[in-house]
Write a structure and sequence with these properties.
Length: 554
């Protein structure tokens, strides 16, 4: 086939080519894999979860090469080592793992990295032997990560691939030979999955996660041999697709929620967490190590699952999905238009949600990734989407997410809002009955007409545009720049409001942080009324993770 990548030795460049080919293969098969997703929950997202996990892994790998090579482009000789490449690839998958299948894929890649990323002399083992042992370790670690392994699933396919690769292991076997054997073994095992799992047999399909793994292994063989797989697992509906809708988790009698989070915790803490979560639900998968884990479980009480993580360590990037909602969304026709808003606080997320927006929560120090924004565009389930970035730092990620969504046929416009109060102003004029362009123009104008400010507490002594601040000082930032340094929240807020209202205004919006008393809002409202009789004031609660005080002046 023309323009196919040439063969590689088992080195860092091979890992980069493998990642690129795997992402492309999963992208092509994504919708078909989604369509045959019936186990453990028929929520039509396995292909999407595998793709997003692979995308996160590829992004981390690319960043590792850029760091090592100083920006060398793909296809040119690089300076990254094999160990650096596989570790970055596995770490990216761990951080970005989505769903049950994505979490297992992350652990498979970690198993590969544990062998290929180990420090040893290059000549100590032949590449074929090294790869065979890496695939074996991957399967072993994946089985160990799943609380109750079930045959006829992605695990079965991984185990068969490892055994097939080990069967051809010899001093003369190349890494490409082992990869081809593993790929063939995985395909054969995939074909047998309906006979191993009743849910697959009833639906007349093979395992969706196994399909994705076959695509990944086919990409590995192609990267090492330069030969493209003869056919993809589900391209062109080669695999039967259920002819009738499959039941969601509640109809199947299983838990109603999927909970996923990253967790910083010790080995001991994770061991106790496994026992606790195992008693709360099913489909428990905990992957990772060295203090960082990705936790996945299906439960009826998502709060208890998150609380278990808090007991074990520090959970973050928490995602809770209701299976009934996901299934209904997959079956429902797309809306004509939707708004996606990035907001820094749970209260703000609820407020924007009440206004009809799909929200992405931005926590302090944890800016949402492109995949999170893209997922929110998908959850909005509309033909047209208006994306409110919410901060200057997120504009590039919002643009990247919009570009990828457009590739899926969704019309997306990014409004580069710089604050949550500008998001609120834009949502206030959103008109789904107007044309797309008219709506975007009106929302952009409303956001642009809203000056914004934020009050924050200085963490250390530093220089600002208005002088030196000390740790504990209250900083008043107007339109992103420090304009006022004060000793307390009320007086600093007054000074900020006076500056903002000096150039006019009709409406002041106050968003209070979780620890700020309601009395401050009453005090500031009285201050505005005293000096600016024609100006109205509205107050909202930002909720957990919001700044101490946000101010908007329209």
């Amino acid at each position: 086939m023309a323009n196919e990548p040439g063969p590689h030795t088992l080195d860092a460049e091979a890992v980069r080519t493998w990642s690129s080919l795997a992402l492309a293969a999963l992208g092509r098969a994504r919708e078909d894999i989604d369509a045959i997703n019936v186990y453990p929950v028929a929520d039509a997202d396995t292909g999407t979860n595998l793709y997003l996990t692979a995308e996160a892994a590829h992004r981390a790998l690319t960043e590792a090469f850029e760091k090592a090579d100083g920006g060398v482009t793909e296809g040119t000789p690089g300076t990254a080592s094999l160990a650096e490449a596989v570790r970055a690839y596995a770490h990216g998958a761990l951080i970005g793992a989505r769903g049950n299948s994505g979490t297992i894929l992350a652990q498979l890649l970690r198993g590969v990295a544990d062998v290929l990323g180990a420090e040893r002399a290059p000549a100590e083992r032949a590449p074929g032997t090294l790869l065979a042992r890496a695939l074996t370790r991957a399967a072993e670690e994946a089985y160990q990560a799943v609380a109750h392994p079930v045959e006829g699933t992605m695990l079965t396919v991984a185990g068969a691939a490892a055994r097939a690769g080990a069967a051809v292991e010899s001093a003369a076997a190349t890494a490409a030979d082992v990869a081809r054997a593993a790929y063939d073994g995985a395909r054969a095992a995939l074909a047998e999955t309906p006979g191993q799992l009743a849910a697959l047999s009833r639906a007349g399909v093979v395992d969706a996660g196994g399909c994705g793994l076959v695509a990944v292994l086919g990409a590995l063989w192609q990267a090492l041999s330069g030969e493209a797989p003869a056919e993809e697992p589900v391209r062109g509906r080669a695999v039967p697709v259920p002819s009738t809708p499959q039941p969601c988790a509640e109809e199947q009698g299983g838990p109603g929620y999927e909970v996923i989070y990253l967790l910083e915790a010790s080995e001991e803490g994770v061991g106790e967490l496994r026992e606790r979560l195992d008693g709360l639900g099913d489909s428990l998968v905990v992957v990772g190590g060295d203090g960082l884990w990705n936790v996945h479980v299906h439960v009826d009480d998502p709060g208890a699952a998150v609380e278990a993580g808090v007991v074990a360590g520090r959970p973050y990037r928490i995602r809770i999905t209701h299976f009934g909602d996901e299934r209904r969304r997959a079956k429902a026709p797309r809306a004509q238009r939707a708004v996606v808003a990035v907001v820094p606080g749970e209260g703000l997320a609820a407020l924007c949600g009440e206004a009809g927006a799909t929200t992405v929560l931005a926590r302090p120090g944890e800016a949402p990734a492109v995949t999170e924004l893209l997922d929110a565009v998908g959850r909005a389930h509309a033909r047209e989407v208006i994306l409110l970035a919410g901060s200057v730092e997120l504009r590039a990620a919002a643009v990247a997410a919009a570009e990828r969504a457009r590739a899926d046929g969704i019309r997306v416009a990014v409004i580069p809002t710089r604050s949550a109060v500008q998001n609120l102003a834009a949502l206030a004029v959103h008109d789904p009955d107007a044309s797309f362009d008219e709506d975007v123009v009106a929302m952009t104008a409303a956001a642009g007409a809203t000056r914004y400010a934020e009050l924050a507490v200085a963490e250390a002594r530093s220089f600002t545009s208005v002088g030196i601040c000390q740790a504990g000082d209250v900083l008043g930032l107007i339109d992103g720049d420090v304009a006022v340094i004060g000793s307390g929240l009320p007086e600093t807020a007054e000074a900020v409001l006076e500056r903002m209202l000096g150039s006019g205004g009709e409406l002041v919006t106050l968003v209070l942080g979780p620890e700020v008393p309601d009395t401050l809002a009453a005090h500031l409202e009285a201050y505005v009324q005293h000096g600016h009789l024609a100006v109205d004031t509205v107050t909202y609660r930002g909720g957990r993770w919001s700044a101490p005080l946000l101010i908007g002046v329209e």
